[in-house]
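Q: For a teaching session next week I want to show students how multiple molecules come together into a single three-dimensional assembly. I've collected the sequence lines for a complex. Could you give me the predicted structure tokens for the whole thing so I can convert them for display?
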Amino acid sequence: MEIWRPAYIGVGSNLADPRAQVLTACARLAQVPRTRVVLSSRLYRSRPLGPIAQPEFVNAVVGVLTQLESPVLLAALRALEAALGRPAQRERWGPRIIDLDLLSYAREQRSEAALTLPHAGIVERNFVLYPLADIAPDLDLPGLGRVAELAARVTSAGLAPL
Amino acid sequence: MTDEAAHQFIVVEGPIGVGKTSLARRLCVSLSAQGVLEQAAQNPFLERFYRNPRAGALPTQLHFLLQRAQQLAALKQADLFAPVRVADYLLEKDRLFARVTLDDAEYALYEQLYARLDIQAPRPDLVVYLQAPVDVLLERIARRGVDFEQYIERQYLERLNEAYARFFHAFQAAPLLIVNAASIDPIANQRDYDELLATIRRMSRGRLYYNPLRSRAI
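A: Of course. Below is the structure for the complete assembly, covering every listed component.
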């Protein structure tokens, strides 16, 4: 209870002024109970993944300290997405007004339907690894490796700081 | 092989207002470390103490002592993930404050309780001591704007600063990094933070004064 755990949250949007959506989401993260935003990366512009033609994304990563357990923090992120206007149905590659991913939580490793830690998509996503390297280059992601090294293995193609 | 020390437990210490909690939080996120942080805001006696130090000291000290005992007991529970930890206080700080704020009879009572509690604190493998003159502390306390802290008196900070200086002069329980926190701002200034973090990561033994000489507009 009295112990604070580090967690890293990916924030992304490509609808309705994505930059403003990301900044709003970052501000609202500061209101999650028993959670404190400590570090925020730069904002990045990125080309969308997948088969659907859609606008560019804006991405960032936020480092928090939290007293919530990981499933509770995840539920808070889902609730925040809903509050910011995201529909409950999640289309895999589709455009989204706001996307909050729990990337890593303390040293936890989980592979459950509801929650995989560290987040399964991290290693191939430059729009996660580059901003994460802004705030925690030396972070050792359990089972994956050091963030700076993971980031060096993906190209920055399609990605640029805003 | 790297030249970096793999710290398991780092403690950031220093007087009120010097910036230890902010630095400890940043270190937690940079190092993916658990934070063991003071809960001063949850001490219901603290405001009374700042308004009236003589009358408020004993309950304030007892509350902090019991709070720390509870927090450090929670730490002892087995943790599967063998986490790295960063704390913003040393247990010894509790006594240091008690010595400054309590009169002799109160301190004797405090000591009895302290001995009874038999608190087991994990031993840090690095202590970062943030140092700054009282003027800087007062300025930072004013800037962070916590209402009840505005009652803190200069004289109290002077005594605390002196007590800390004496304590760390004799300190030998862990490697010690003494940071001139008046000349750098590792919270607002990213470069200051990066350089301090690199120093922390490299430091593995002994005692080091970290005092980057940098001209800075005030």
